[in-house]
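Exercise 3.2. Students should predict the tertiary structure of the chain below and write it as structure tokens, then compare their answer with the key that follows.

Predict this chain's 3D structure.
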Amino acid sequence: MAERTAGRPATPPRVVVVMPAYNAGRTLRMTYEELPKDTVSLVILVDDGSTDATLEIARGLNLQIFVHNRNYGYGANQKTCYMEALKAGADIVVMVHPDYQYDPTLVPQIIEPIVEGRADVVLGSRLKGGSALAQGMPWWKYAANRFLTALENRAFGLSLSEYHTGYRAFRRAVLETVNFTANSDRFIFDQEIIGQVVAAGFRIAEIAVPTRYFPEASSASFVDSTVYGLRILSTLFWFTLNRLGIRRSRRFDSLRARYTRLP
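Answer key:
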């Protein structure tokens, strides 16, 4: 693959927003309407077996819709999102949750480090601005987030403020390289793909994003969050064994040669 050069491309990239949807009928329209249409080339919604009006509302919007015949899980939804975005010719893929928890207007800011050649993956961090608690994040989620992020930084050799965000942007080459289809169909998919990104040598940046906590926004329960936390610890364990060469895991093997990095 040809080596990349820094700076903005001669032509604007094709930016595809993907929305992994499950019972998002009350917030989907608000989220879609606030997307910056001058930046976004295409919006893809994957419905994961919703039982509310998500599909009915989606069909009234200018987006592409893919429907799972049942609820397969958040990770399975993302797999379909990314595969369809690549098929649609995306240069940059941005995941925006349709629950309106993250600010859709920030798409230009989250893709900027990729467009300028400074990063391959960008995370929208709720903690980078230091106001997550003031914005309504439960204290126990905040504490768990900080604890798990510290462990992840140690395992991945990074210094990010948060890994547990649903606002993410990927350069096309990242999704073509990492073996994301081997990941879990559940929420731990989010951390598995970050491990794959790190293992493949891609660069990760982050921007501060505000978040909203309100009844219509999706939020995991304490029990679900605890299970998620334990699965993160398991992912870090297997990532570390793979990195040290003690036990290889096909999840962390690239699908093609490592992407050329900038010096």
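Discussion points: The first strand starts at residue 15 and ends at 21. The first helix runs from residue 28 to 33.
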